[in-house]
Design a protein that fits this description.
The complex is a heterodimer. The N terminus of chain A is likely disordered. Chain A has two domains: about 260 residues, no CATH class; about 70 residues. In chain A, α2 packs parallel to α8 and α9 runs parallel beside α13. Chain A has a four-stranded mixed sheet, with helices on both faces. By secondary structure, chain A is mainly α. Chain B is of the alpha/beta class. Chain B folds into two domains: about 220 residues, Rossmann fold (3-Layer(aba) Sandwich), CATH 3.40.50; about 70 residues, Alpha-Beta Plaits, CATH 3.30.70. Helix content of chain B is about 35%, strand content about 30%. Chain B has nine helices and 14 strands. In chain B, the strands form three sheets. In chain B, strands 6-7-8-3-9-10 form a six-stranded mixed sheet, with helices on both faces. Chain B has a four-stranded antiparallel sheet with strand order 2-1-4-5, with helices on one face. In chain B, a hairpin with a 2-residue loop joins β4 and β5. In chain B, α2 packs across α3. The longest helix of chain B has 16 residues. Chain B starts with a strand and ends with a helix. The mean pLDDT of chain B is about 90. Classes of the chains: A mainly alpha, B alpha/beta. At the A-B interface, α1, α6 and α7 of A face α2 of B.
Chain lengths: ~375, ~290
């Protein structure tokens, strides 16, 4: 047919098709109010955790003690107390009784006392006062931990939660958008227009970009927050781990996205999305729980940091704890990238076999056929 | 010209299409008629490459269709669907661009088509907010927005009110008039009868009849004639080879054993006086359909 009024149909390349599909995914997300609200909450939460952390670290006020006479020099040397001077031992005891101070330090009446002071408390031994005023033996630590245990715990959980939340939010979004196309049958028009691989790739790319943008903005927000609230020391420690986390997340999420799309394509109704994608949800939750329970177990962390599903959490935590050699994240990333490619190939096969099958759930065997 | 050659397809052990062959000519509105489950949708999906046949080919002007050729097709699947939460115009522009149109021509075509289908006032509404009839119009727009060179429409008239049917018929006829081969299926045989140039009848996955509407009618015409003359027609009974079925003064319906016998009646009638009507009774599409799939 030759008709001059017709536009020329230059078939878009694979890349152009993928780009068009991913753009639609992104604009559909940006239009969804629930997505914007959820993202806002996630950003607020991560900002809040930085601010709360900074306030908590500044509010460690000094213990108040009442001091009498010659004891004052001993107490002031430690610079660890808020000192209230009292005239007599009786006055100091009164201050302890009415709760103005936590303890009183008075000159000892016992001449044999090595320190020459007596600590008076209300109902129990004030361990922080005793600890500070005690004489300690010399201490030598053979293999000092790089990070304080509690901080390590917090950082591990932080990576775990962010990974879990982003992966499940965007994974569920991909799953829904796959089933939406299947349920509304627009998939038949799409399949008659572009290749199934281009459709899958566009979906995965669009949602991965959004997930990655979310991770990067959380990372930036936390970094800026740490810098602004003066927690620069912590930033220096966490910074490299955050960067690695973002890199691992980029690959790990593409893997999960392909899995979510493939499993979702096996059902035809939104109601069935949850049960169809639950195996993938388990894969996402495992690293979260492992990191909560085993963040102080280098052996488990080492395994986690190489298994593709948990590497995005495991490796950054190990980097933060200083347990990883320089080549380890590189090797783990290579393993992750390779398994991502394998999963994409298998996933796209399931996706293209299952897309046109309406009604009952498609079994894995049917979906992998041919 | 769109050629379907020897297409066979089975789902597992169930054979759904057997050696299906027919042609959709340039500028021909071709009606595709068959009972539910006869294989219409499967055939259309195979033409569009959504399904692949076990054997057989689909040809454009004698050359097998490639994936990039399929972007020149306009397709309306039987199972309707557009993105419910996407705006009508945006959705059409998206589909046009997936078919390879530039952003500018995608927007121009969308505006033009929505106006022709009487949907321009709803361009900015989401699809889910449209009435069923308007959703159907949007669906037709989705099949046409990229200026396809071939149209394959599965039940384009179902769910449309009579007014919308007229609008859609005009739009489709316009495409055919530009020289595009148009294949459409429908259960509404009266619409097919009015609209189609050619007809393909399928039953149990096999093509039962195939050809121009007039040729099919000719083929399935009964040897019945009706005649109305100025005078009484009682004499027809006496003509050899004629059986009168109905008779009412100047009007008669008769069956002729041969063409010669029917022509004999006409000659005698003309000799006797003026003849107002003499015609062979033409079967309706519904009659042909019943006969063919029986």
């Amino acid at each position: 047919m030759s008709n001059a009024t017709r536009p020329v149909h230059t078939a878009p390349t694979f890349a152009q098709s993928v780009w068009l599909v991913s753009n639609r995914e992104i604009s559909a997300r940006l239009r969804s109010k629930s997505f914007l609200i959820a993202t806002g909450i996630l950003l607020l939460l991560s900002m809040a955790s930085v601010i709360v952390g900074s306030i908590a670290s500044q509010n460690t006020s000094l213990t108040k003690v009442a001091v009498v006479g010659t004891a004052i020099s001993v107490v002031e040397d430690t610079k660890a107390f808020d000192v209230v001077e009292a005239d007599t031992v009786a006055d100091a005891e009164a201050l302890v009784r009415d709760g103005t101070v936590d303890a009183a330090v008075v000159p000892s009446t016992n001449a044999q006392s090595p320190l020459g002071i007596t600590v008076i408390a209300l109902d129990s031994a004030p361990t922080d006062v005793l600890g500070t005023l005690s004489v300690s033996p010399d201490l030598k630590i053979l293999d000092p931990a790089e990070q304080d245990g509690f901080l390590a715990y917090l950082v591990s959980i932080g990576f775990g939660i962010i990974f879990l939340m982003s992966a499940t939010t965007f994974g569920a979004t991909i799953a829904q958008s796959v089933v939406e196309e299947k349920q509304t049958r627009i998939v038949e028009i799409l399949m008659s227009t572009i290749s199934v691989r281009a459709l899958l790739a566009g979906k995965v790319l669009g949602n991965s970009l959004m997930a990655f943008a979310q991770i990067v903005s959380i990372g930036l927000l936390v970094s800026v927050g740490l810098a602004v609230t003066g927690q620069r020391v912590l930033l220096g420690d966490v910074g490299p781990a955050i960067v690695w986390f973002a890199v691992f997340f980029a690959f790990g999420f593409v893997l999960l996205a392909a899995l979510y799309a493939a499993t979702a394509s096996m059902v035809s109704r939104q109601e069935d999305v949850g049960s169809a994608t639950s195996p993938v949800l388990f894969l996402v939750m495992i690293p979260y729980f492992l990191v909560i329970f085993f963040n102080d177990n280098p052996f488990v962390l080492a395994i986690m940091s190489y298994v593709p599903f948990s590497a995005p959490v495991g490796m950054p935590v190990r980097i933060f704890l200083g347990q990883a050699e320089w080549w380890e994240p590189v090797l783990s990333l290579a393993i992750l990238a390779l398994s991502t490619m394998v999963v994409i190939v298998i996933g796209s096969r399931i996706y293209s076999n299952a897309l046109l099958r309406m009604g009952a759930r498609v079994s894995f065997r049917e979906a992998l056929h041919r | 010209m769109l050629d379907i050659r020897g297409v066979t397809k089975s789902y597992g052990a169930r054979r759904v299409l057997t050696d299906v062959s027919f042609t959709v000519g340039d500028g021909r509105m071709t009606g595709f008629v068959g009972a539910n489950g006869a294989g219409k949708t499967t055939t259309m999906r195979i033409i569009l490459g959504v399904l692949s046949p076990d054997s057989g080919t689909v040809l454009i002007d004698g050359v097998p269709v490639t994936a990039s050729d399929r972007r020149r097709f306009g397709y309306m699947p039987e199972e309707r669907g557009l993105y419910p939460k996407m705006k009508v115009a945006e959705q059409l522009v998206y589909l046009a661009r997936l078919h390879g149109l530039s952003p500018a021509s995608a927007r121009r075509n969308t505006a033009d088509l929505l106006a022709r289908l009487g949907l321009d006032a709803r361009a900015g509404d989401t699809v889910e907010s449209l009435s069923l009839g308007n959703q159907q119009r949007a669906q037709i727009a989705a099949a046409l927005v990229h200026d396809p060179e071939f149209l394959v429409l599965d039940e384009p008239f179902s769910g449309l009110d009579p007014l919308a049917v007229e609008v859609v018929m005009t739009v489709l006829a316009g495409f055919a008039a530009q020289g595009a081969p148009v294949l459409f299926s429908s259960h509404q045989l009266d619409i097919v009868e009015r609209l189609c140039d050619d007809l393909v009848i399928i039953a149990d996955g096999e093509i039962r009849a195939n050809g121009s509407r007039e040729a099919l009618r000719e083929q399935h015409s009964s040897p019945r004639f009706e005649i109305r003359t100025a005078g009484d027609t009682g004499w027809i009974r006496e003509v050899p080879g004629i059986t009168v079925i109905d008779f009412d003064g100047d009007f008669a319906i008769f069956e002729a054993e041969t063409d010669v016998a029917s022509q004999d009646v006409l000659h005698r009638a003309v000799a006797l006086g003026s003849v107002h009507t003499f015609s062979q009774q033409r079967p309706t599409l519904a009659t042909i359909f019943k006969e063919v799939i029986a």
